[in-house]
Design brief:
four-stranded antiparallel sheet, 5 helices, eight-stranded antiparallel sheet
């Protein structure tokens, strides 16, 4: 074979080898480009919570529990001090007593001695009211001058209003004793008693709110105010987690929903314990356009939305806590 033939033969071999190398390289690049690791869906454990709060404003006298404590239904959680509510109770009791006396007088009628006695009670109540009014005015002036606390001013005002209510009740008793009572007046007196009792019951419910008790068993997660701090109406005092009501939450793209359906059981991995747990789906809902989604229309396909999936453990796992991660691996 001539040298020129050998050169042509070698060039052909080099061309074939180069082409083969290019094909192999392109194949390897394509393999790594289009081969992807299995996607992982990650979620977390959540738990039902409720906030303990009061209907009345007050000062925190005592916190009976600590964060991390487990409480049972009926356990005392916190005690509040609400002097305004106590003042309202005194007023309500006074109004109830006055209404009861008025009703009794309307039913029994009044003798001359009773009329005179009612007049004396009215005069006594009037004298007490005048003293309370003057005391309140003095305390108000001292408060305006900055030498008296708002608490003292409020107590003086509550005393003044309570005595004012007593005076009005005594005055009504005296007038009824003088005029006698008709059937309609007797009915009105009985209605006043019912109204006064309702006011007492209402204030009693507010007083009960000064002692906060656990409505459901659970674990104390967060305590917000400190002892001695003031809280307003409806302000949260603490958060309690109902540990028996626990579930896992996942945000899943719809192309990953394979195997996740209502009432379907699946396996998730718990990294905290290096164990697997069985979960059963009980909730699935489209998270809406505001949620994370993947647009694929650019390549002629479709948009993928995200679904919120919730599932409860089939069996209880000891030590499982809210916030722990859950991992679902695609198969």
């Amino acid at each position: 074979m001539s040298n020129q033939a050998k050169i042509q033969h070698n060039n052909i071999l080099l061309a074939i080898l180069g082409f083969t190398a290019v094909v192999v390289i392109v194949g390897v690049i394509g393999f790594f480009a289009f081969t992807r690791d299995p996607e992982v869906i990650q979620g977390q454990i959540e738990v039902s919570e409720y906030r303990v709060s009061s209907k009345v404003p007050g000062r925190v006298l005592e916190i009976r529990v600590k964060e991390g404590d487990y409480v049972k239904v009926g356990d005392t959680l916190a005690i509040l001090d609400a002097p305004e509510v106590r003042a309202k109770m005194e007023q309500a009791r006074s109004a109830e007593n006055a209404a009861s006396a008025q009703d009794e007088m309307a039913r029994n009628g009044a003798r001359q001695e009773q009329i005179q006695g009612a007049f004396q009670l009215m005069q006594q109540a009037k004298a007490g009211l005048e003293i309370a009014e003057k005391s309140y005015q003095r305390v108000q002036r001292l408060f305006d001058e900055g030498v008296m606390s708002a608490q003292k001013r409020d107590e003086a005002y509550a005393q003044y209003k309570a005595l004012e209510a007593q005076y009005k009740a005594a005055e009504s008793q005296y007038q009824m004793a003088r005029n006698g009572a008709r059937r309609e007046e007797k009915m009105a007196a009985a209605a006043m008693v019912g109204r006064a009792k309702g006011a007492v019951n209402e204030v009693t419910s507010y007083i009960n709110e000064t002692v906060q008790i656990a409505q459901m068993a659970g674990e104390v997660m967060d305590i917000y105010p400190k002892q001695g701090e003031l809280i307003g109406t409806g302000s949260p005092i603490m958060t309690i987690a109902v540990m028996d009501d626990m579930w896992g939450t996942f945000n899943v793209r719809e192309d990953q929903l394979n195997g996740l359906a209502m009432d379907k059981t699946f396996t998730a991995f718990v990294p905290a314990f290096n164990k697997e747990i069985q979960l059963k789906v009980y909730y699935m809902k489209d998270m809406g356009s505001y949620a994370t989604w993947k647009a694929t229309k650019a390549n002629g396909q479709y948009d993928l939305k995200t679904f919120e999936v919730k599932a409860r453990p089939v069996e209880k796992m000891e030590g499982l806590r809210p916030g722990m991660s859950l991992v679902i691996k695609e198969k």
